[in-house]
């Protein structure tokens, strides 16, 4: 095997522990966080979205590779479409908000993020949760009649703080090997 | 018949698409379907194409599937330890033989009728040997996968279908002297930092192709946001002073190009003004990708002439004709130090209005592991899918292609009339065409001349 392939460890259903019940207060508040986050991004309130990021953030979108099914656990590469931490995300946000030359999103795309299939698990750390969600995203630009779409699963770690939930980790597992949109000038 | 008709078309077309006298290219060239088909034949089967790096396939049997034009190829390490490039089309009934992007296989067996091939492309046989399902008209030796000609250079895998054409060395010509400073400068060489990013851009491949030939001028406007946030240095708000790196030395040969940025400019941007000799600066501020521990290797592997260039103005960005884009740039790392991002792109056509943009990140093998991780993150922040530099490019090329769809729009031209002219400094090696000063259109026009030459070459 080539040295460059990363293994993503899927936790099998029978090995999961501490699933937070659907409809419980914790589940509902996490669902609320995900909806709020999508709304802020869709409305380009990027500054407010940035405030939801934890300072030890890891934000990644590993490249996907078409593999034989025997190598299903080696579908993701060490390289990513995002490979970010808190500071680099803040730099991206600063660029979008403070310059008048961020052309890839000026004029801006019209983006909608549909978040569903949310599962929440407890972790070894109190007040931290593993969250899996599906993301379906539509992006329309200029006068294009069609949309660029993206589907992905997001594996997050959310941390409850005195200021509400913060995103501490996000792995975006995209369903495309060759992306159909020309850039990620948007956040996922 | 069809080919003859196309040749007639081509004689007409080239003079209409490219105005050699006025250095203009018709915007229609970004749209024309017949021209596109000819480009596949005349450029993408004739040129040497970069399709990966040998560190992607270190073991016997390792393979990756890549594109050469619109043709899929299997890039595999065979039992002889060598890298082989074979068309991913079964000679039996045209099924793809490899269905995954990468993996390890000693035998590539077509899932349709079971014809089997070695990683070097040679035919092993079809099922039920005694029935000889491949017939007896053609020998097994004739039934292998079509083989491309392969040459490794700095570990990069170059391939071409032009079996009788120039060697890679001749193809690169004088520019190889400069490319060596990027790809062949350490004992162990470069390695990839993972499988590449791939994405589709709704644009004609030539929009990115010609830009890679040292379009420096777009930096100060299209990438203005990167200057605004201080990532390119500069103190004044007047445009050119905001981007001192606009002054440099462009190099061009055979359509290939590189842009060298004066080391004292980079040094001043990173560390403020300071009086250092070129030799001291090379020591204190090695070229992008060279960490202090690799400096002795750099000195060993480079000639005195190459070391002189590296100390004065190392090559940092550019391209390789027809479809490779290079960025070996200084780039801040997570730990607050100034590091590097080593990036190569390939531009593979997918019809006249689309191309695949493939992005590879590299580090010298001798780089500390922790630094490699930071280099990968830094490259991802600046370039490729989400790169704060390149996301603006990927939004521009589709607009140019869209313009070519209008019947009036396509009567416009791309203009390359800002001419610096060859002006090699006295202490610069006499290799390739050398343009010193504020980067202008010279090298990009040379890209089009190389394109013109290949398109009109006798088949």
Protein model, in words:
The complex is a heterodimer of chains A (188) and B (459). Chain A has 188 residues and is α+β, with helices and mostly antiparallel strands. Helices cover 19% and strands 40% of the residues of chain A. Chain A contains three helices and seven strands. In chain A, a hairpin with a 2-residue loop joins strand 6 and strand 7. Chain A starts with a strand and ends in a 14-residue tail after the last strand. The mean pLDDT of chain A is 91. With 459 residues, chain B is of the alpha+beta class. In chain B, 29% of the residues lie in helices and 25% in strands. Chain B is built from 15 helices and 22 strands. Chain B has helices at 2-17, 33-42, 168-172, 175-183, 205-211, 219-222, 224-228, 239-242, 263-271, 278-284, 295-301, 304-312, 369-382, 390-403, 442-456, and strands at 18-19, 24-26, 49-53, 62-68, 71-77, 83-87, 102-104, 108-109, 116-117, 123-125, 149-153, 156-160, 190-192, 197-201, 247-253, 256-261, 315-320, 324-332, 338-349, 355-364, 413-415, 433-438. Chains A and B meet through strand 1, strand 3 and helix 3 of A and strand 7, strand 14, helix 7, strand 20 and helix 13 of B.
Uncertain runs of chain B with pLDDT below 50, 5 residues or more? 233-240
Q: Helical residue percent of chain B? A: 25-40%
Count of beta strands of chain B: 22
Strand order of the largest sheet of chain A: 1-3-2-7-6-5-4
Helical/strand content category of chain A: alpha+beta
Count the E strands of chain A: 7
Q: Can you give the helix content of chain A as a percent range? A: 10-25%
Mean pLDDT of chain B: 92
N- and C-termini, Cα separation of chain A: 30 Å
Total of DSSP H or I helical runs spanning 4+ residues of chain B: 15
Order of helices and strands of chain A: EHHEEHEEEE
CA gyration radius of chain B, whole angstroms: 23 Å
The biggest sheet of chain A amounts to: 7 strands, mixed
Q: Compute the gyration radius of chain A: what is it?
A: 17 Å
